Amino acid sequence: MLDVAAVAWIWLETDAQLLNLVSDIFWKDESALSIFSLSVALHDIGKASLGFQNKIPELAKSAGLEYSEAFHRHFDHGAFGGEWILNRMDQEHSYTPLLNEEWFRELWKSACWHHGSLIQNYENYSKDAYIELKYNEKKEDNAPQNKIQKLRSEILDYIEKAILGTQGLRIAYHQISSSSLRFFAGFVSTCDWIGSDKSQFEYNQDYLKPEEYFRKAKENARDALKEFGLIKKPDRVFSKFKDLFPEIKIPRNLQTRIEEIQFTKKPYLLIIEAPTGEGKTESALFAHSKSPNRGFFFGLPTQSSANQISNRVNHFLFENLKTNQEAILAHGSAWLHREITQDRKYDGLQNNTETIAETELSEWFFSKKRTLLAPFGVGTVDQAMLAALNVKHGFVKLFGLSGKTLIIDEVHAYDSFMLPILERLLEWCATLKTNVILLSATLPSFMKARLLEAYSGNDLTFQKDKYPLISYVETESTTLQEYSGIQTRKEEIISLQFSTHTKDEISEIAEGVLRSIKKGGNVLWICNTIAKAQMIYSYLKEYKDTNQDSFYLKLFHSRFTFQDRRKIEQEIETLFGPERNDSKRIRPARGILVSTQVAEQSLDIDFDYLVTDIAPIDLLLQRLGRIHRHSRSNRPDHFAKPQVLILVPINLKELNLFSSMYYKFTIAKTMNSLSEISELLLPQMYRSLVEQVYSADIPQNEILTLGKLQFHISKNEWGNLFDQLKQKQEELDTKGSKGRISSVWTNIEDILQDTLLSEDDNAYFSAKTRDGETSLQLVPVMKAKENYNIGNFLLQDKPPQKVSISLQTEIAENSIPVSSPKGFVQGIVKSEIFRKDFHPLLAQWQKKLDKTGPLKGKYLLLLDATETTSYTLGNTIYNIKYDKEFGLRIQVQKEN
């Protein structure tokens, strides 16, 4: 207990930023260090109980504490500690004034939450007879309940003397809020993990005076905190962009405009709205460095985008910020990314032995409970959102974010379901002195208004017609500072063309695309579904093989194994990335990449011409950022100007054929915004297009003219689509609100009413974009004759007792994320195919996966190595095949 208190004392004493944060959240008082350390020390008072001591009956018996009712029974010492403070403490002993203060007991009780959850009903624990004998029955002097009471009193006296000395402490009343209790519970849990590290705090059997023990414990705590990288030197302040990024010879106007912001010591919300390619990432890192705090966490919408930016952030930390700490990668598959990139770490780590040591020691942070405790982190935004949800150890994540900078990229991607969670997170960030920087190319006004109010606590007015735009507000401020008139690196006119097709007939469009590259050029064709992308690729492949044509052709979507997808990403970024003097970057003279939405996210690729299914306007604008992205000397003359062919339905019935995964109202409004338009002027039209689509207005147009096509929609149909959208969004808003922690203004006695959720619940903890449905991870087991393989691994008759890291990596590398068809996903989950024993070998391996942490939740799927495999799920037959060219193909054969 004193070891943990020593960690708290030294951490607060040596980390001025943390001490200032604690003082701001609680109070500024010279007694704060002693009070917090004492309440941290008392977190394990529940272990001084018969219930806990009798977990090992032999030891309890030797100490005269034997109590058979408690042998080998479940016992929550944290819950008992809270219950004891609440109901029993005053019956046992006359304690010092501080321990009798109600506000101090609130701190103390929250320290008892250190095993991960708020204890909702202390009284339930007093009813368990095995915890302690009833207090009202007569007891003999040597009865175990008397002994344990005496032991508790001695422990409390010893701890008080160790921390407060013999002089005690001047007592003053302090206000305790529910928000400060969550913060404190996270702080206690972190100190407990560090103070329980046996390599740093060895058990001492010799009796030491209280002051002497605490002195030695503080020496050990100082070493432990240094080893874990938690004693952090303040980062250097940069007021000029060029000083922080000297390698950027000509900064973007957006980046230099950040210099105009007068940051104070108050927490702030900064929203940066600008087109793709304007340097929003560097702008955010510069803003943080103008007013650095305890560190930052960079949240992105997907694991792939987080993986890609992590090396870029580490380069910034080592080369620009001059730290010796790398950013911890935080998402569900971060361990896998670390395993496969060990030999490709950021080069700056290679040259400095101090750096290498500090980086290796940061392994402590890789536990999913601790990732946000690292000074710097990169990951999926759901890792931060867990801090706003009532999950086990959620308050640890809340503490980890406190006093830092939270950067969220592509914030527009989190709508309906995630927005209420994001609002609650921003509310808590403001209270816990966390700066927030939001980045977006296309942020709708309604969403911006909600996020501004969540952080500032005020309904702020802002410019809706300016773009690009920087918006800055401090906590509790009624004034929003805005910076407009930002020059962009380029203005371009994009020519719009429209076409349509029936369900299975895309030959006319495909032949037009093939004709367009006869004289050279590279085309990106983005489909809204994997099935459609596979169909188009199959058509183009057949044409290429039949005509012995040599143009480059590749298929790219999310339903490849992780290792196959990574290879495709590396290939297309090499071929279609920025123009460089690099022999490996030989851009194809003619090529077509058929893809899905994965091509619009994070990849730095540049094509000459775009073909795309209709999509919500913000996603269309994202896709347009993948053509003419870079200046290029070898662009074909007929593609000198950017052009896009948008595939649209011609009536409402065919809407699902083109965009079934998006709201019909949003798609129809997107087509309405493009009606009678033959070209886009960007970035000037960004704001007006997004506002037109995402406003609450119901269009009155009944004929939408898209090039030579006309889309007919009646006013009643407009109204019906709007009602469907509103109902769905209300459902998702309610669902997203259900799992949130209480508001920062909730009374202490009411915060315990929050419903504890499971962190593994897909409905809450997938980083959902566009209200994505439940997804699962499939692991194909390829059968060839009598052999069963996962990747290059041959399944043995019996799984090993312990799955090695290399085998875990092989299995994870060969898993495939699948979210559609919906019936297939739900059927796999409901049937639990290989959790049953109709295939003994796979049933054994499935059970092993279920018990192996990183592999838990993955489903084995038996497939023939060369032929199609059929599965009947419910009333539907699914024909399934996997290969490295097409990825996972799922064909629905029959539905009843």
UniProtKB/TrEMBL annotation:
A GO BP annotation: defense response to virus
InterPro entries according to UniProt: Cas3-like_dom, CRISPR-assoc_Cas3_HD, CRISPR-assoc_Cas3_HD_sf, DEAD/DEAH_box_helicase_dom, DEAD_box_RNA_helicases, Helicase_C-like, Helicase_Cas3_CRISPR-ass_core, P-loop_NTPase
PROSITE patterns: HD_CAS3, HELICASE_CTER
Database matches in Pfam families: Cas3-like_C_2 (PF22590), Cas3_HD (PF18019), DEAD (PF00270)
Nucleus recorded as keyword: no
Entry keyword Repeat: no
MF (Gene Ontology): ATP binding; hydrolase activity; metal ion binding; nuclease activity; RNA binding; RNA helicase activity
This protein's UniProt keywords: Antiviral defense, ATP-binding, Helicase, Hydrolase, Metal-binding, Nuclease, Nucleotide-binding
Start and end residues of each Helicase C-terminal domain: 501-681
Listed SUPFAM superfamilies: P-loop containing nucleoside triphosphate hydrolases (SSF52540)
Domain HD Cas3-type residues, every copy: 1-194
EC numbers on record: 3.1.-.-
Enzyme class: hydrolase
Coiled-coil residue spans: none
Family: In the N-terminal section; belongs to the CRISPR-associated nuclease Cas3-HD family. In the central section; belongs to the CRISPR-associated helicase Cas3 family.
Protein name: CRISPR-associated helicase Cas3
